[in-house]
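Input record, target 12 of the design panel.
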């Protein structure tokens, strides 16, 4: 759907996460974009379960407060879905006309969708013809209950949902696609977005998504580990987590004893093992197809990536280049607020969604 930012409608990118709800509005600024308004509020406890909004009234109230406090007067929203039940797969199938594929897409998607295809919204894009008689198709499927529960709360908060996007697509749009200095257009990269409850791992090769996987572990896992071991409240555990530097674990000499760091290390190592498994699975699929396109760089984002030294620690464990990237690391983005959002690590999803209001973003 092509939208014009110069019409009567105004748009907000709305990231409905398990930990917080983030809103971002952007405007064109020269050859780039300016974040003119942004804010976030905590997600009401127990209101979102596995991506589905199960407590709509508190969410609606939180959204209304967020929009009012940030002076966002948008009439339309661009939202996203993510999680283990959202499927993004690049598959190779026999060549056929697009109209034929549209009629048979439920059958093709049924091989990969973990739930009933009748209970899912399914879209596809033909991305290439690698050899005679074959074509590569990107299939995207999202459960209807996740999508519809989010549309309902937006409507109740006074917002018309124009587009429902996929979170990793939004991250790629804001951090990579719009940044000509990133030099990733012809490379194979892994986008790792660490949220509160889950971590999204996506492999993108030459601008095409090859694989997306959701790992049921995120920043809250680390916070809860500190809370449980040291009997801390949420605020103190979160603050303590930000003060730890994982580079201490890489010292060749025996590092000084740091109990909080040792408590977190096994949880961080488990997350990295799951990321490695995802990358190994991608590589095995590529090898079977005779197209070895190994991942060269990991682009790390999300609020859970704010732990000091996480990128260096992950780089050592994965034996890959790992770069922590926020939306304001992109030279085509600027910020018009009075507060300090740092590099905007946690804003990549909402900013990428806000960009969908523009017909062309590259």
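The sequence produced for target 12 reads:
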């Amino acid at each position: 759907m092509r939208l014009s930012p110069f019409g009567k409608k105004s748009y907000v990118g709305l990231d409905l996460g398990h930990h917080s709800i983030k809103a971002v509005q952007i405007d064109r600024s020269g050859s780039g974009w300016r974040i003119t308004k942004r804010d976030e509020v905590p997600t009401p406890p127990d209101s979102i379960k596995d991506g589905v909004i199960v407590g709509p009234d508190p969410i609606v109230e939180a959204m209304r407060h967020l929009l009012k406090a940030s002076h966002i007067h948008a009439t339309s929203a661009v939202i996203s879905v993510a999680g283990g039940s959202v499927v993004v797969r690049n598959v190779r199938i026999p060549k056929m006309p697009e109209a034929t594929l549209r009629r048979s897409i439920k059958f093709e998607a049924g091989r990969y969708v973990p739930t009933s295809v009748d209970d899912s919204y399914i879209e596809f894009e033909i991305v290439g013809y690698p050899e005679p008689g074959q074509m590569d198709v990107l299939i995207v499927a999202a459960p209807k209950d996740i999508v519809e529960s989010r549309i309902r709360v937006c409507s109740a908060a006074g917002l018309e949902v124009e587009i429902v996007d996929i979170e990793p697509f939004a991250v790629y749009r804001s951090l990579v696609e719009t940044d000509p200095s990133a030099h990733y257009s012809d490379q194979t990269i892994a986008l790792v977005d660490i949220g509160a409850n889950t971590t999204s791992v996506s492999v993108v090769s030459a601008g095409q998504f090859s694989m997306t996987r959701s790992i049921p572990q995120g920043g809250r896992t680390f916070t809860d580990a500190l809370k449980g071991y040291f009997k801390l409240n949420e605020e103190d555990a979160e603050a303590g987590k930000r003060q730890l530097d994982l580079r201490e674990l890489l010292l060749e000499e025996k590092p000084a004893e740091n109990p909080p760091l040792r408590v977190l290390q096994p949880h961080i190592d488990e997350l990295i093992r799951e990321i490695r498994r995802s990358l190994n699975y991608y590589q095995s699929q590529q090898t079977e197809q005779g197209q070895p396109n190994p991942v060269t760089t990991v682009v790390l984002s999300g609020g859970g990536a704010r732990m000091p030294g996480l990128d260096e620690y992950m780089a050592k464990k994965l034996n890959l280049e790992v770069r922590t990237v926020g939306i304001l690391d992109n030279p085509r983005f600027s910020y018009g607020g009075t507060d300090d959002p740092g590099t905007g690590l946690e804003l990549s999803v909402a900013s990428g969604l806000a960009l969908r209001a523009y017909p062309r973003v590259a």
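Residues 1-7 have pLDDT under 50 and may be disordered.
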